[in-house]
Design a protein that fits this description.
This protein is α/β, with parallel strands linked by helices. The protein has 12 helices and 8 strands. It has a single domain, classed as Alpha-Beta Barrel (TIM Barrel), CATH 3.20.20. 34% of the residues lie in helices and 11% in strands. The protein starts with a helix and ends with a helix.
């Protein structure tokens, strides 16, 4: 795995400061039942990093004390963490909106047969990876047979009311196949809804269009193919200052499986921790007394992935999301 941080750290990016914290994005572990080409986490079946029971307790304590409105749970496949369901139940009991970054195939894994019913019962908002509406493209990026299993997962969620009941939100996520900017979110969402509806009878709420980040597995692939510099130039040339106000790191804090804090999930994967006076790494426990409002954000060249063109965040395009 080629480290892209030295290349990214040499690229200047406009200074940013944090605003009001409203989302805690928690990575509960890097283990996954898939190994996707574009994965910025480098997740896979052999990863063993996993959030402990005590750290889950601290997440719930922070949510309650700070009255944080949204818990965004990610991985790996977050559902493989043995404390996932307790975390969901505790967060929902505190009144938080809970999002699950679900890869869909996890719904058919052994011992996860009741997972979809659990998510529906807790009214968890599902953000599901679906990088294309065509089988060949999905299987090329995520592995053979993933498209068919993803369709089966979506049908199961639809049968429970996801995408039909306003209390059961189902959003899909698109990533480009390679080193290119994603297409317009609204037009692509219309294509997804039409084709998935006509071919498979599937309905969903929104499509989130995300740019691929030049880090971890995808970044290493770009370096090995000699495409890293050209992709960074593409992102820089498409940068818009108007996207800076809407980047997710202004209102979100990312938490790794150990409980350490980062400005975003991408900084977490580059090991660029959120620091505070006297401590090189801030921890969840620090959030009990500080919301880091006004704190400077760690930036580098990969941040252009969030500000290029229509912009990109965990909630999809910045421009179209604002409109």
């Amino acid at each position: 795995m080629r480290d892209t941080l030295p290349l990214l750290d040499a690229i200047p990016f406009p200074a940013l400061r944090r605003g009001r914290l409203d989302t805690l994005q928690v990575n509960v572990g890097y283990r996954c039942n898939q190994s996707c080409v574009h994965c910025h986490v480098n997740a896979g079946p052999t990863r063993t990093e996993e959030m402990s029971d005590d750290t889950v307790d601290l997440v719930l304590d922070v949510l309650t004390r700070r009255k944080i409105g949204t818990l965004d749970i990610t991985g790996g496949a977050p559902e493989l963490n043995p404390h996932f369901r307790r975390l969901v139940c505790g967060a929902r009991a505190s009144g938080a909106r809970v999002m699950d970054r679900c890869n869909l195939t996890i719904l058919s894994e052994p011992e996860q047969e009741d997972l979809a019913d659990f998510l529906a019962a807790e009214q968890v908002e599902i953000v599901a990876s679906m990088p294309c509406y065509l089988a060949d493209n999905v299987d090329r990026q995520r592995g053979k047979g993933v498209f068919d299993r993803s369709i089966a997962g979506l049908k199961r969620l639809n049968a429970l009311g996801y995408g039909r009941d306003e209390r059961l939100v189902l959003n899909l996520v698109y990533n480009p196949q390679g080193p290119s900017l994603p297409p317009g979110q609204a037009a692509l969402e219309a294509d997804y809804k039409r084709i998935l509806g006509e071919d498979h009878g599937i309905v969903f709420d929104r499509l989130f269009v995300l740019a691929n980040m030049p880090i971890q597995r995808f970044g290493s692939m770009l370096v090995s193919k000699g495409e890293f510099a050209s992709y960074l130039h593409l992102l820089q040339d498409a940068h818009l200052d108007s996207n800076l106000d809407g980047v997710m790191c202004r209102s979100l804090i990312s938490v790794d499986w150990r409980g350490y804090l980062f400005d975003c999930d991408f900084n977490q994967m580059l090991d660029l921790p959120l620091a505070r006076a006297g401590k090189p790494r801030a921890h969840l426990s620090d959030l009990l007394g500080d919301d880091f409002n006004g704190h400077p954000i760690r930036v580098a060249g990969h941040c252009f992935g969030c500000t290029a063109g229509q912009g990109s965040s965990c909630g999809g395009a910045l421009k179209e999301a604002a409109e």
